[in-house]
Amino acid sequence: MGPQAVYQDDNARPHRARVVNDFLQQSGVDRMEWPACSPDLNPIENLWDELDRKVRSNLPPPRDVQHLYQMLQAEWQAVPQRIFTTLVNSMRTHCVECQNSQGGYTHY
Q: How far, CA to CA in Å, does 11 sit from each of 19, 37, 42, 77, 93?
C-alpha cells in the first residue's frame, strides 16, 4: 500500500472487531469513514462474488486452506483487466443511485 493509503471496509462486524481496530491503529493505518451497510458503494464486493463462483466451479473442491489459497490466487491472476476497469467505471452510477435512494436499496 503506501504512506497515503486509506483502509476502506463495509462496516461488517469482523472488520470492526477490537483486534482489527487495535491492529490498524498500532500500524498507523487510516480508516475511511463509510456508511453502514453500503456494499452498493464497494466495487470489490462484485469481484469477491466472481472469485467465489470461480473457485466453487473447480472440481474437485479445495482439500484444505492452503489449496483454497492457491485456487484463489490463480483465479485472481486470471481476472481480465477489463473487469477491474468496468468496476471502477461503474462507481459514478452506483454513487448516484445510492444518493437518489437516500442510502436505501439499489439494484446493485
A: 14, 7, 11, 27, 22
Q: Which of 92, 88, 94, 90 is nearest to 107 (CA)?
A: 94
Q: Confidence band (pLDDT; 50, 70, 90) for 39?
A: low
Residue 69 corresponds to which cell in the numbers above?
Answer: 489459497
Q: 0.70 exceeded by the pTM?
A: no
Is there a contact between 94 and 106 (Cβ–Cβ < 8 Å)?
yes
The residue among 56, 86, 84 whose CA lies nearest residue 68 is 56
Q: How far apart are CA 74 and CA 5, in angstroms?
A: 26
